[in-house]
Design goal:
By secondary structure, the chain is α/β, with parallel strands linked by helices. It has 11 helices and 14 strands. It has helices at residues 2-18, 55-62, 77-84, 103-120, 132-142, 176-184, 198-203, 205-210, 244-247, 259-276, 286-292, and strands at 32-36, 38-39, 51-54, 67-71, 90-92, 127-130, 148-157, 160-161, 188-195, 211-218, 223-230, 235-238, 300-301, 310-314.
Length: 315
Amino acid sequence: MCAQVVFAVLAAYLCGLFIPSACRDNLNYRPVIGVLAQENIIGDPHAQGPSYIAASYVKYLESAGARVVPIRITGSYEDYVKIFNAINGLLLPGGNVDIQKSQFSRVSKIFYDLAIKANDASDYFPIWGTCQGFQQLTVLTSNKNLLTLTDTKAVALPLTFALGAENSRLFKSFPKDLLLSLAQENITSNFHSWSLSVQNYTRNAKLKRFYRILTTNTDGRKEFISTMEAYRYPFYAVQWHPEKSPFEWIDKPGMIHSLSAIKASFYTASFFVSEAMKSQHRFLDQKEEEEALIYNYSPVFKGLSSIFMQNYYFD
């Protein structure tokens, strides 16, 4: 009984961190978030099907109080409309596929368009993009690939906060000591070769109207956007990897397991889950919900030398 009370107090505290009091009566405290699968990494010896989801993204969301539905990349438009109306948000994960021609890109666009339409009709539906997901969102918004090569393959960096970013939806409830750590410590893991430069963002009217820059970074030559949120829509994107610090363990530069890095992971996840709680989408019944959840699948351990410790594979 004591543990239940402690958990309830913690849950109430976290909800209070991110959600205005006037909105709390309408919250969905059983949020289900979709994570989009993608084509396998070429040469993956552990593959058990043509697509995968890294387990770290599932754990990341579960750590903040959400359940996860895997979204396969071989479904029909009708399949995705049905899933969209049942889940409370979408996470577009990192990876290594073509963000214009892949099945990952095709399905991302379907959900992106559905989310735009839903939010325009006051049907709240948030999207989160990490690394490749960040990049995918820039293509979906601009209808162009505006990415540029950067030397950011395996490095941890501090964030350079834009003016007023601490009052953004994403960051405004972060503890001050965590914001200071993010600004001063090398705790954001970067594992990408392509970035959206500030210059390319500035030159593209669609991106400038749609997204607000929250943080930037530099590889020493090019300044690129590392965190952004949409002005009108509950869409958020990070070029760095908050899910890696608690859940990935390959011994490489850029992999940070400090307390402040893990705290950053938790607060980003908690923020996005709190956004998903504002969605009122539901499965038709409990049986349909149970059959859709990630618990029906078993992750495959890929070894300590793998960039992803565990993957879920799908037909």
